[in-house]
Amino acid sequence: MNPSVAEQPVAEAEWLARYIVRKQHVRRDGTVKPDPFIPFKYVELSETRHLALTEQQIWDIGDRVASQTRTQLQGRADAQASVYMQQRLRVIAAPEEQNPNHVNVVDWPSDKQAQKEIALEIVKYVRYKAKPITAS
Amino acid sequence: MTLATLDSPQLSYGATPTRGAGPEARFIAKQSEEDRRRLREAHSIGLGAERAFEELFVVARECGKPNWDGYGAQAVQEETCWQAYRFLEALPLGIPVPTVGAEADGHLTLEWYQNPVRVLSVSISSNGMVYYAALIGSSKRSGTEPFLGEVPKDILYIIRRVFSA
């Protein structure tokens, strides 16, 4: 993980991960519900860019997110940045000490109805990856 | 919300608001309430409505504390659980059973899903406001309505459309 790399603007083709810590956010057919894509509380959505990370490093960051809730990481919902951009959202690099690859998806409408419409569109293109048993 | 509240004598499947003012109207309403309850109990066993109520209590328990999603989510409030419970109770017979979830703003969700382009998601807030969005093939529907004891007609229409193909 290279902080200087992570400060680069987010490209449309980049993959982003939204970590899933609740089983009920994943449907029986392995697709993801719109629920974890509703922004809160600053009308932003936190994501992690895959940029320059190994698969194991992506999972390690997810484990840290899950550890805050004292639960198990279930998996991650991956989507390209273009999926958000097509919804007129912006993806901004927002490196954090614990996660230099952190980004915020911003420009969400403030009303809930519109947020739900967008979240339903996003999840059409999301790929869910369950956490491998071997990854820790 | 605790599991103990499940046993509250005030709760029953399928309670419907009484509209009539006179004793006859109340009697008819009472009878239909009981018929409806019996049907709902049969329905819950046969078609899985009971599962939705169980899911509701699991989600309420798991998401009842702040930051339940690792991203700073708001706790699901007890009143939100009751609103969702009443919403489930108010679903007419024959309506497919939704799955239950939660959102970071503390709303509970009910989802009717056939595939990623035939889906309805309903969010229920603690003050009884209901927010919904749906994809039905290439068309979209969304709205915001108060929940006043009966499931909004537009939502029932969308549920049927989601499962019509």
Labels describing this entry:
heterodimer; A: 136 residues; alpha+beta; six-stranded antiparallel β-sheet; 4 helices; globular; B: 165 residues; five-stranded antiparallel β-sheet
Your description of this structure?
The complex is a heterodimer of chains A (136) and B (165). By secondary structure, chain A is an alpha+beta fold. Chain A has four helices and six strands. Chain A has a six-stranded antiparallel β-sheet with strand order 4-5-2-1-3-6. In chain A, a hairpin with an 8-residue loop joins strand 4 and strand 5 (102-106). The radius of gyration of chain A is 14 Å and the shape is globular. Chain B is an alpha+beta fold. Chain B contains four helices and five strands; from the N terminus they run αααβββββα. Chain B has helices at residues 23-47, 49-62, 78-90, 153-162, and strands at residues 99-102, 108-115, 118-124, 129-136, 139-146. In chain B, helix 2 (49-62) packs antiparallel against helix 3. Chain B is globular, with a radius of gyration of 16 Å. Mean pLDDT of chain B is 80; it is low at 1-20, 22-28 and 42-46. The chains are: A alpha+beta (136), B alpha+beta (165). The A-B interface holds A 19, 21-22, 24-25, 27, 29, 31, 33-36, 38-41, 46, 65-66, 68-69, 71, 111-114, 116-117, 119-121, 123-124 and B 55, 58-59, 62-63, 67-74, 99-105, 107, 109, 111, 113, 115-117, 119, 121, 123, 131-135, 140, 142-144.
Oligomer: heterodimer
User: How many helix segments of chain A?
Assistant: 4
Number of strands of chain B: 5
Mean pLDDT of chain B: 80
* Beta-strand content bin of chain B: 15-25%
Q: Compute the separation of the termini of chain A in Å.
A: 18 Å
Radius of gyration of chain A: 14 Å
Low-pLDDT segments, ≥5 res of chain B: 1-20, 22-28, 42-46
**Biggest sheet architecture of chain B:** 5 strands, antiparallel
Name the structural class of chain A: alpha+beta
Q: Which two chains form the greatest contact, residue counts included?
A: A-B, 33 and 39 residues
